[in-house]
């Protein structure tokens, strides 16, 4: 198996093991610990050693990992890679149980800019965090992945909506609650344990007990539905990877592999500079939270690294962040949705994203720097600019640039079907991006 094939298999395994942001962070922590990175608690005083790797989390859904260089951070700056752990999905409401027409359903809230139609007729499961009291009354938390298909959102037959292929509006409140099964006598009546208001929490408690947890009472949860179809290599020559959550777990995985690989590839050793990976939750809903990119998580870590204000400012002046978030590949059936000179192609290299209105933080300087990293790694690169008559999405890049005053370039692997329940990217592009990121971490001198 080639290095690229091993890389893609690792990506597939990571996607499969990460049905929620908390699971993605857990999977990344596992790899960091295997590489010798040590855990840090934000509530403790940090004693950091040169050349040692560390990681810390917030809310178990956002992660910062870094390896200190031998060079003082005020002199070498920090080489940063940023991504996000969340993806658009359907989240379960606090009081979710619905009994309608003899069916047990769960009410859901749309998280982020979900492309709704593809969620119908999929085999769905649940994953995320559950907070519960154990049998002694102690409040604790655990990750849950039900793994098996437990729900479905059936489409309405075309016989009952003859205009479905022309125009089919989806009402998130009425049309998206998944069906878990048919209501039974256990789901009604006066028994408190089987009343509709407690059915779901009883199910959660049973699933957690099956995983070895001592559960007295489920108190709350942060759970999302996901498609149980596993990732796959697709195409006559397996040139595509098809999976849920490529936006943006592909970038999380790619950034992590670049960080780990660059540990042994630094070309300016023994004066290696500090390298860092940040993966935030809540990007898909604006990043405004304690664990999102607009919150203080990354800055608080950087200030600990920088020390007193003068050194911190010198460090930031020598730092750069590559914001990695997948880009829109040109769709052969909808080519007119792209600017004719800026239509990135699958398997043609990472995409530099540019927007004059600062929806992306790329500048001509940071774009030129990134192209040099691609040249060093001998990988191709592309540019994306949205059509002038269309709106433009955004990333954590402009947020980081605004909060930190750091140089930022927005890049990403090209993909199709962004924000669908199942997305498609190229089997070469994540590898290309990883090579460029490794060149950045291993060679950039902070100038």
Automatic annotation (TrEMBL):
Signal peptide: none annotated. The keyword Protease applies. It holds the Pfam family Peptidase_M18. SUPFAM superfamilies: Aminopeptidase/glucanase lid domain, Zn-dependent exopeptidases. Keywords: Aminopeptidase, Hydrolase, Metal-binding, Metalloprotease, Protease, Zinc. It is an enzyme of class 3 (hydrolase). Its EC number is 3.4.11.-. It comes from the Bacteria. Its cofactor is Zn(2+). GO terms for molecular function: aminopeptidase activity. The keyword Cytoplasm does not apply. Belongs to the peptidase M18 family. This is M18 family aminopeptidase. It comes from Oceanisphaera marina. The gene is apeB.
């Amino acid at each position: 198996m080639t290095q690229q094939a091993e890389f893609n298999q690792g990506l597939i395994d990571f996607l499969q093991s990460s049905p929620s942001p908390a699971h993605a962070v857990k999977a990344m922590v596992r790899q960091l610990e295997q590489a010798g990175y040590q855990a840090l608690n934000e509530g403790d005083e940090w004693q950091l050693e040169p050349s040692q790797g560390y990681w810390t989390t917030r809310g178990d859904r956002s992660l910062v990992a870094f390896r200190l260089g031998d060079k003082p951070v005020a002199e070498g700056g920090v080489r940063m890679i940023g991504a996000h752990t969340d993806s658009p999905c359907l989240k379960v409401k606090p009081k979710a149980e619905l009994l309608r027409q003899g069916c047990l359903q769960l009410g859901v809230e749309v998280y982020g800019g979900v492309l709704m139609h593809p969620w119908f007729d999929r085999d769905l499961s649940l994953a995320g965090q559950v907070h519960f009291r154990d049998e002694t009354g102690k409040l604790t938390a655990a990750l849950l992945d039900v793994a098996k298909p437990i729900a479905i959102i059936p489409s309405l037959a075309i016989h009952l909506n003859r205009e479905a292929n022309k125009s089919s509006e989806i009402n998130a409140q009425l049309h998206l609650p998944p069906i878990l099964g048919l209501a039974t006598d256990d789901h009604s009546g006066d028994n408190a344990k089987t009343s509709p208001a407690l059915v779901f929490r009883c199910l959660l408690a049973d699933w957690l007990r099956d995983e070895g947890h001592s559960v007295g009472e489920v108190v709350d949860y942060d759970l999302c539905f996901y498609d149980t179809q596993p990732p796959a290599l697709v195409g006559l020559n397996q040139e595509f990877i098809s999976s849920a959550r490529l936006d943006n777990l592909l970038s999380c995985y790619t950034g992590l592999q670049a960080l780990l690989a660059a540990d042994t590839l630094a070309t300016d050793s023994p004066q290696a500079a500090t390298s860092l990976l940040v993966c935030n939750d809540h990007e898909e809903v604006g990043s405004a939270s304690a664990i999102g990119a607009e919150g203080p998580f990354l800055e608080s870590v950087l200030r600990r690294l920088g020390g007193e204000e003068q050194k911190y400012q010198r460090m930031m002046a020598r730092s750069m962040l590559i914001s990695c978030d997948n880009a829109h590949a040109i769709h052969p059936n909808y080519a007119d949705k792209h600017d004719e000179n800026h239509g990135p192609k699958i398997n043609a290299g990472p995409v530099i994203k540019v927007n004059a209105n600062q929806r992306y933080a790329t500048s001509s300087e940071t774009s030129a720097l990134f192209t040099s990293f691609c040249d060093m790694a001998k990988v191709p690169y592309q540019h994306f600019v949205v059509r002038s008559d269309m709106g433009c999405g955004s990333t954590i890049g402009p947020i980081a640039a605004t909060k930190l005053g750091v140089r930022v370039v927005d890049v990403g692997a090209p993909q199709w079907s962004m924000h669908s329940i199942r997305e498609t990217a190229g089997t070469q592009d994540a590898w290309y991006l990883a090579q460029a990121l490794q060149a950045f971490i291993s060679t950039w001198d902070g100038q």
